[in-house]
Amino acid sequence: MPTAFLLDAHISPVVGELLVKEGINAKAIGGSSLMSAEDEELLELAFKEQRLFVTYDNATVPATVAELLNAGLNVPSVVYVSTATIASNDFSGLARALKRLAVRIEKGEIDPSGGVFLEKP
Questions:
Q1: Which residues contact 60 (CB under 8 A, 6 or more apart)?
Q2: Report field, pTM of the whole predicted structure over 0.90
Protein backbone atom coordinates (compact mmCIF):
# COMPACT_ATOMS: atom_id res chain seq x y z
CA MET A 1 0.00 0.00 0.00
CA PRO A 2 1.37 3.44 -0.88
CA THR A 3 2.46 5.62 2.00
CA ALA A 4 0.04 8.40 2.95
CA PHE A 5 0.62 11.32 5.30
CA LEU A 6 -1.53 13.46 7.58
CA LEU A 7 0.31 16.74 8.26
CA ASP A 8 -0.24 18.27 11.69
CA ALA A 9 -1.87 21.71 11.96
CA HIS A 10 1.40 23.62 12.33
CA ILE A 11 2.79 22.23 9.04
CA SER A 12 2.02 24.46 6.08
CA PRO A 13 -0.47 23.11 3.53
CA VAL A 14 2.22 24.00 0.96
CA VAL A 15 4.08 20.87 2.08
CA GLY A 16 1.01 18.78 1.28
CA GLU A 17 0.65 20.45 -2.11
CA LEU A 18 4.31 19.72 -2.93
CA LEU A 19 3.86 16.07 -1.96
CA VAL A 20 0.68 15.69 -4.00
CA LYS A 21 2.50 17.13 -7.03
CA GLU A 22 5.04 14.33 -6.54
CA GLY A 23 2.26 11.74 -6.52
CA ILE A 24 2.28 11.19 -2.76
CA ASN A 25 -0.98 11.01 -0.83
CA ALA A 26 -0.84 13.85 1.69
CA LYS A 27 -3.53 15.64 3.63
CA ALA A 28 -2.83 18.89 5.47
CA ILE A 29 -4.69 19.90 8.61
CA GLY A 30 -3.47 23.50 8.27
CA GLY A 31 -6.22 25.70 6.86
CA SER A 32 -8.89 23.03 7.33
CA SER A 33 -11.79 22.72 9.76
CA LEU A 34 -9.56 20.47 11.92
CA MET A 35 -7.10 23.28 12.78
CA SER A 36 -8.23 23.38 16.40
CA ALA A 37 -8.61 19.62 16.85
CA GLU A 38 -6.87 17.95 19.77
CA ASP A 39 -3.94 15.59 19.19
CA GLU A 40 -6.12 12.59 20.07
CA GLU A 41 -8.61 13.43 17.32
CA LEU A 42 -5.88 13.92 14.73
CA LEU A 43 -4.15 10.67 15.70
CA GLU A 44 -7.47 8.85 15.49
CA LEU A 45 -8.09 10.31 12.02
CA ALA A 46 -4.62 9.30 10.85
CA PHE A 47 -5.14 5.76 12.11
CA LYS A 48 -8.60 5.51 10.55
CA GLU A 49 -7.32 6.76 7.18
CA GLN A 50 -4.13 4.64 7.41
CA ARG A 51 -1.87 7.68 7.24
CA LEU A 52 1.40 8.42 8.98
CA PHE A 53 0.95 11.44 11.24
CA VAL A 54 3.68 14.05 10.62
CA THR A 55 4.41 16.54 13.39
CA TYR A 56 6.97 18.98 14.74
CA ASP A 57 5.25 18.68 18.13
CA ASN A 58 7.79 16.55 19.94
CA ALA A 59 6.53 17.76 23.31
CA THR A 60 2.88 16.69 23.53
CA VAL A 61 2.36 14.15 20.73
CA PRO A 62 4.66 11.45 22.22
CA ALA A 63 2.84 11.75 25.55
CA THR A 64 -0.54 11.53 23.81
CA VAL A 65 0.59 8.45 21.87
CA ALA A 66 1.73 6.83 25.13
CA GLU A 67 -1.59 7.61 26.83
CA LEU A 68 -3.57 6.12 23.94
CA LEU A 69 -1.41 2.99 23.89
CA ASN A 70 -1.72 2.60 27.67
CA ALA A 71 -5.50 2.82 27.25
CA GLY A 72 -5.33 -0.03 24.73
CA LEU A 73 -6.27 2.17 21.79
CA ASN A 74 -4.80 2.02 18.30
CA VAL A 75 -2.47 4.76 17.17
CA PRO A 76 -0.99 5.54 13.77
CA SER A 77 2.69 5.59 13.01
CA VAL A 78 4.10 9.02 13.75
CA VAL A 79 6.83 10.87 11.87
CA TYR A 80 8.57 13.24 14.26
CA VAL A 81 10.37 16.23 12.76
CA SER A 82 12.75 18.51 14.61
CA THR A 83 13.35 22.14 13.70
CA ALA A 84 17.03 21.40 14.34
CA THR A 85 16.87 18.99 11.39
CA ILE A 86 14.40 20.70 9.04
CA ALA A 87 13.24 24.25 9.70
CA SER A 88 9.47 24.58 9.91
CA ASN A 89 9.55 27.14 7.10
CA ASP A 90 11.60 24.86 4.80
CA PHE A 91 8.54 23.53 2.98
CA SER A 92 10.44 22.00 0.06
CA GLY A 93 13.02 20.43 2.39
CA LEU A 94 10.29 18.80 4.45
CA ALA A 95 8.48 17.61 1.32
CA ARG A 96 11.72 16.10 -0.07
CA ALA A 97 12.44 14.34 3.21
CA LEU A 98 8.90 12.94 3.40
CA LYS A 99 9.07 11.79 -0.21
CA ARG A 100 12.37 10.01 0.49
CA LEU A 101 10.82 8.44 3.59
CA ALA A 102 7.78 7.24 1.62
CA VAL A 103 10.04 5.59 -0.98
CA ARG A 104 12.10 3.86 1.73
CA ILE A 105 8.96 2.63 3.51
CA GLU A 106 7.52 1.26 0.28
CA LYS A 107 10.82 -0.52 -0.49
CA GLY A 108 10.68 -2.13 2.95
CA GLU A 109 13.83 -0.35 4.14
CA ILE A 110 12.03 1.35 7.03
CA ASP A 111 9.27 0.07 9.30
CA PRO A 112 7.42 3.14 10.57
CA SER A 113 5.23 1.25 13.04
CA GLY A 114 7.17 2.40 16.10
CA GLY A 115 7.53 5.97 14.92
CA VAL A 116 10.19 7.62 12.79
CA PHE A 117 12.47 10.58 13.38
CA LEU A 118 12.81 12.37 10.06
CA GLU A 119 16.30 13.03 8.74
CA LYS A 120 17.52 15.95 6.66
CA PRO A 121 16.55 15.85 2.97
A1: 39
A2: yes
